[in-house]
Amino acid sequence: MKRLLLLVPVLLVAGSALAQRTSADPALLEKIRRLDLAHAQAIFRSDAAALDSLMNDDVSVNHPTNRIVKEKKELLGLIKQGVIRYSAFERTPESFLFFKDMVVVMGGEVVVPAKGAPNAGQKLRRRYTNIWLLQDGKWKLSVRHANNVCAGN
């Protein structure tokens, strides 16, 4: 219990250093919304050039196929192999959290994997979190987590 009490002030200080901005710049909100939706479209179209420009080289994805993809090269390889391919892909961003040089986007997705991909033909509902970082003046997708929602939830 004593250790927990000592840890609480440390967490509070660390949390305040990364404190979320209370108000978002409307232009930045719109820019990140467009980037987030462009990422979904690029995945849907298997557009490697667009994905290359939207993601950091060391992007990490906690993928709904229960694996962690640790770099852009590997992710683009999965797209080329048809592991990541969809006949339908709809993304709905719901929440934007703004931090210094970082924006977290959370929302929902409805996807239908294409023939040859895992879960082909099934309509899957997902929850997702995308983390966009400002690096060298450009916003890049750096971390993504997407998980399938179990039926009935």
TrEMBL record:
<feature type="signal peptide">
    <location>
        <begin position="1"/>
        <end position="19"/>
    </location>
</feature>
<feature type="domain" description="DUF4440">
    <location>
        <begin position="32"/>
        <end position="141"/>
    </location>
</feature>
<dbReference type="InterPro" id="IPR032710">
    <property type="entry name" value="NTF2-like_dom_sf"/>
</dbReference>
<dbReference type="InterPro" id="IPR027843">
    <property type="entry name" value="DUF4440"/>
</dbReference>
<protein>
    <submittedName>
        <fullName>Nuclear transport factor 2 family protein</fullName>
    </submittedName>
</protein>
<keyword id="KW-0732">Signal</keyword>
<dbReference type="Pfam" id="PF14534">
    <property type="entry name" value="DUF4440"/>
</dbReference>
